[in-house]
Each structure stands twice: as structure tokens, then as C-alpha cells.
Specification:
It is a single chain. Strand 2 and strand 3 form a beta hairpin. The chain folds into two domains: 169 residues, Rossmann fold (3-Layer(aba) Sandwich); 106 residues, GMP Synthetase, Chain A, domain 3, CATH 3.30.300.20. Helices cover 36% and strands 23% of the residues. Strands 2-3-1-4-5-6 form a six-stranded mixed beta sheet, sandwiched between helices. It is an alpha/beta fold. It is built from ten helices and nine strands.
Length: 301
Amino acid sequence: MADQQETRCGFASIIGAPNAGKSTLVNALVGGKVSIVSSKVQTTRTRVLGILPHENAQIILIDTPGVFQPKKTLEKAMVGAALDAVKESDVTMHMVDVTDRNLLDKNKMIISSLPKNKPCYLILNKVDKIAKEKLLELSASLHQQYDYARTFMISALKKKGLTEILKALAEDLPAGDWMYDEDQMTTMPMRMLAAEITREKIFNQLYQEVPYSIMVETEEWENFDNGDVKISQIVTVQKASQKGVILGKGGSRIRQIGQESRADLEDIMGCKVHLKLFVRVQENWQERPETYQAMGLDMSQ
């Protein structure tokens, strides 16, 4: 780490419409999985903190749920968490999927919530999939609506253009001591990260059959003397028909989900993982106060 008097440390929130690539960017910058990624929108439900050092700075990234016009209680809590993160951060990164034909309409609500007295970057994502002329036109249109401090054109998936973002953050974050150990990647408890990874696998495998009305909780966690870990998780659905879809014929689907989740967990934790998944039906779990407490969300949003 650099000399203490030279160090910088602060929070940088990433905000954007659903599926803008925020979680992909966080994982790419951190260099490991701390936030789940799915082709389905609205998969990030809570604010995820990713931590990384760059030069003399410790950058604390806040991955937020996608911002949209919410209707249900859970949706309102998710959007509220995202907007709160902007207020709490030292730098805001407004991420935009340039391939989205409706990006200007989808980002109006976000632009109206961007800070007036702190740096805000415009992050144009998936620039490899659009003509340069169109890209510059979109950038100009967004700058007409908000005075961004910096603009970056990147591909989060291909990890293109990320070094420039890190350099800017290292310059713009406030001076101060580092808050976390140099090798810490996230503040998310491992039990919660394990549950999020399983939820990611369910979304990726069942994106057509199962809606967002599922929740995964780590119920038991046991460390063995030989270094192995035993994890038991509960998958909660709202309907019996959804339970059947997740289980699959003869339990084939739930076994496949478990295998993929286990592989990710073993890679992250560096040990053998014994993962047990159970599915239960609980109607209206999204309206229960304890659900929001477990997710770290505010039900009153």
C-alpha cells in the first residue's frame, strides 16, 4: 500500500437500468465473483459491495439493483436501495447499455436522480456492438441531459476500457485511510453470497419457466476438520407448480442447479463443498417483513 498520507478511499456506486451490465462490470473490476450475473433483468436485489485496490486508492464499488418504474413492494425496495446508494457514494457511475433502443426513455428517472455536487461518470457499455457514429450521437444526447464529469466507452463483458475507469476513480475518491484489508474482495457475508450464486443458477437455467418470485437462503453452514464445507439452502417459491419446475423430473433440475452452484462455490472458497438444496412453497413471501430484513432492504421504500 502507498504511504498513509497519500492514500485515498471511498465509495463508487454503479447505477443503471436493468441489464445494463452493472454486475458484470463489478466482477470484472474486482477480478472475482461478488455479484450475480444473469440475462434476466432485476436479478440484483440488494446493494453489493466489491472492494479492490488501484494504485494508492481502495475503491469500494456498490452494485445496485436496476432502476425502473416499480409497482410491487419488493420492486420499490430494490429501486429505493439503488437511489440511496447514489446519495451515499463519493462517485456515481451511470451505466448505459448502448444497444438498448429505448435507453433514453429508460434512463430519464436515473438522470433526474444523479448528484449535483459530486462527480458522476457516464459509462457507455457494449460499445463493440454499435457503430461509432451512433455511439457518439447517444453520448451527446445524454450529455445534453446531465453534465457528466467523465465519459467512458467500454465492454464490461470483454473487460475493455476498464483501466481508464480505475485510474479516474483513484484520482477522484477522497483522501483517507483504507477501510478494509488489501485482499478483501467484498463485504457480503459468505452465506449470502452462496445463496446469491444458487439464485443465479436458477435464473440462468429457468429464465422462461420461473419468474422472479423465488428466494434462496443459506440455512446451515458447517465447516469440517478436513477443510470441507457443508451448506444447506432453502429455495422458496410462491406456487406448487414452480416447485415442480425447479425440482425437474426425478429431481434432475435441482441436481443440475446444485452442481453448477457447487462448482462456483468451490472455485471461490478453494475447498470441497457439499451443497444440499431444498424447495418449499410459501405464498406471498415477498410481502413478509422478515424477507426484507434478510435482504437488507427497507420495506417502507
